[in-house]
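Shipment paperwork, digital attachment
Item: protein structure file
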Amino acid sequence: MGNDGGSIPDRRDLVRTKKKGEQADKANQTRAKWAFCALSKLPLQEPVVSCALGKLYNKDAVLEYLLDKGAFGDGQNICGHIRSLKDVKTLKLTANPAPAREASTSVITPDRAQFVCPLTLKEMNGVQPFSYILSCGCAFSQAGLKAVSSGSSPKDSDTMDSLSLCPQCGAKYNASSDIIQLNPSLEEETKMLEDLVLRRAQEPTKKSKKRKAAELDGADSKKKKTSTSAPSLNPSITTASRTVVNSLAQEEAKRKAGMSDAVKSLYRDKDAPERKEGANFMTRTFNRYA
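Attachment content:
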């Protein structure tokens, strides 16, 4: 560095440049998407579920998130669109039949995928795009599913009313709306999220059980009020009440007829004129100066 002829400095030695930022390894990112749970970051273990955005989760992690939304820290950003277990589908995955260890070296191969397509036996490791059928949960590679669907005759599709049959379990599905891509690209995931928001906005509002019970109670009370406000009178009851009133009036008349004049003078008829105060000794108030 002293220009003595011993070394020739280069620009890299004389000029300090900014270090390049660390770039994420795409291979590790892809492996993390297909081999680990998107929520708990643990290896995928059956039962494995997927949401409407195609992300892969361990079912126990989703249950833990639904019980405690803050259990995973960033869970709201990852799966905030999951409201209940109805928003996820349990996948029917096919285990990889390839051996987990190499025969010669007995070393675990980290690139070995845990699941494969049951039609083409292609590994589910992110190299080949995979999808699952929403109606049954069976997962296939898109190439294998297209090959099977293209092999069906048009007559069969007409008779099935544009419905196809799952090549693994035979369940019916709509090829235009029931196929969900697993781990889509960022642009496709954004589009799928927008479609999900639109579908939920069009859903009718569900009434809670308490509100339904209150409405039923209100309807029952209204019926009771209307029934009590206009009761039906039985003619036999009205005639019986009239006879009772007449008999009581006759007994009262007989009782008054048997009274003496002194006792009758204590009672006054309603139609009789009012007596002046002091007209009767019995009604006069006591006064010592009277």
